[in-house]
Amino acid sequence: MIDAATPLAHLDLIAQVTAEFAHTRDPKGSILSGLVRVSRILEAEASSLFLLSSDGAFLACEACYGPVDITGLTFPADKGVVGRAVQTRKAQLVRDTADDPDFGTVDVDGQTGFVTRSILVAPMVVGDQVLGALEIINKSGPDPLFGPADQALLEVMSAAAALAVHNVELTERLVEQERLTTELHLAAEIQRKLLPEAAPGDFPVHGVNVPARGVSGDFFDIIERPDGRIWFCLGDVSGKGMNAALLMAKTSAIVRCLCKGEDDPGRLLGQINHELCETAGHGMFVTLVVGLFDPVSGEVALANAGHEPPLLVNRGGRLLRELPAEAPPLGILEDAAGPEGWPVSRFLLGRGSLYVFSDGLTEARPPGRPAGKPGGAREMLGQQGALALFAELAHLDRRTRLMALVEQVMVRDTPAHDDLTVLVIEQDQP
Amino acid sequence: MELSVNDHGNFAVVHLKGDVDLQTSPQVRKGLLGLLEDGRRPVVDLSAVTYIDSSGIASLVEAYQTARKKGLSFSLVQVSPAAMRVLQLARLDKVFTFHDTVEAATVGA
C-alpha cells in the first residue's frame, strides 16, 4: 500500500497535471488550475504562481488562489521566502513564518490583512534557467504543518510548470522568428526590384547580384541617358544584413535621382557623399564606382570611391588597366575630395572588357577549382583568380558569362560568405 | 579576437589581436566609443590584426567620427600588412592618422 505521506499517493494528480502542462497554450491558466487542485488535496488556504522578469530583477505574482487576490504583486527577486527559493534554486519549507528572517521583507499580510502562518515554495527550474516559483500557504486540517511529502509533491509540480512556461516561450520565439523570416523575404523581394531589369543581349552593360543572406549590401544600376550615354554604378555597403541592406536601398535611390542632372562621375560621387554624410550613422560607409559610357565614342569616364579596382582586360583575359580608388568611400568625410569631387579616369573601351565587381568575387573561395590554379584549393580567388575566370569565360556572351561566373564562384547549397555583384561593360565590334 | 587597453596619460592604447569581422567588430565599437565617452584619446594598435572586414573598418570609422565631433584625437599605430592592404585599397589612408610607434602617437601624454 502506498503511504499517504509520500508524493506517490498523488500519482494520479501528478500524471493529470503534467499531461495538461505538456499541451497547454495558456501556462498560467493551467498552472493555476493545478495549484487549486494541490491546495485542495493538501488543505492549503492559498497558493500562487510567481514568474521572474526577463532581466531577473523582479518577481511578479501571475496567478493566485485563495481569499486574497495578489495577482500583479511585484517585488525584488531576492526578497521574501519566494526570492530565497529562486536565488538558491531550492524548495523552502517555513513551518512558522514568525521564525523566518526573510518573511517580513515582502509585507503582503500588512497590505492585505491576510495572516500567513506557514509557507512551502518550490522554484521553477529548466536546465540552468530559473523561471519563477510556486507557493502554497497555510496548511489546515489535523496536521497543520507542511511536511517533506508536500514539498516533494510541489517540487514535481513546479518542475512540470517550468517546462510548460518554457515550451510556450519557445513556441512564441519560433513564431516571432518565422515572422521575421517572412519580413526578410519581403525585404529581399523589394530590394531585388531596385536592381535594373535584364537588358537585351546586345546592350553594352550587364550586371548580376547574388545576395549571401537574402538581403544584399551590394547593388548595381544601369541607367540610359536620353543622349544615349549610359550610367553604370556598383556599390558595397560596409557590414552585412538588414542595416547594410537599408543603406544600400537609400544609396541606390540617391544615385538614380542625382545621376539624371549630372554628367561627371567625380561630381556625382561628391553629391552622393554629401547626401550620405548628412544621414549615415554608426560609421557605416559605401564604396562606390560610377561610370559613364558613351557607346558612340567608346569613351568611359569612371570615378572610384574606396572600391576594389575595376579591371579593363582584353578578350584573352590579359589585364590592360587597373582603376584603383584615388579617394575614400562615401559617407565618412564631408570634405573627403576637393570641390570637383572624386578624381575621374577617362579611357577608350576599345575591344576590351571592363569588369566592376564587389569583394564577394575576389574574397570568394570557390569549390572545385584545382590546386595550382589561382583561387584553387579553396584559397581566396583574388585578382589573379578573377582574371583567370574572365579569360576562361570570355567566349560566352555577356549575360551568359555573368551567370557562368556566378556558378563558378558560389558554393551551391551552402550559404555564401558575402554578396557577389559583377558588372561587365564592352562593345560588340563590327 | 582579443582587445586590451593600456593607459598612456590621457591616451588609451587599444591593442587588437586576431580577426576583426562581423562577429567581433561590435566589441571593438563598444570599447572605442566607451573610451571616447570618458574623454580618452584612443590609439589603436593594429599590429596583431590578421584580418579586418568592412564591418571592422566601420567600427574604426565610427570611433574616428565620434572623436572628431568631441575634438579628441584618434590614431592607428603599427598597422599590420593585412589591415594596411584593406585600408589602402579603400583609400582610408587619406582619412585616418597613422603612427609607426605607440610613443609617436602618444607624444605629450
Automatic annotation (TrEMBL), chain A:
Q: Check the record and name the Pfam families matching this protein.
A: GAF, SpoIIE
UniProt domain PPM-type phosphatase: residue ranges = 198-427
Q: Name one GO molecular function term.
A: phosphatase activity
Q: In this protein, which residues make up the domain named GAF?
A: 26-175
The UniProt keywords, alphabetically, are: Hydrolase
The entry's protein name is Sigma-B regulation protein RsbU (Phosphoserine phosphatase)
TrEMBL record, chain B:
What are the top taxonomic ranks of the organism?
A: Bacteria, Pseudomonadati, Pseudomonadota, Alphaproteobacteria, Rhodospirillales
Please indicate which superkingdom the organism of origin belongs to. Bacteria
User: What is the protein name given in its UniProt record?
Assistant: Anti-sigma factor antagonist
Protein family (similarity comment): Belongs to the anti-sigma-factor antagonist family.
Kindly give the PROSITE patterns that the UniProt entry links to this protein: STAS
Where is each STAS domain found? Answer: 1-109
Identify the Pfam families for this entry: STAS
Give an example GO molecular function: anti-sigma factor antagonist activity
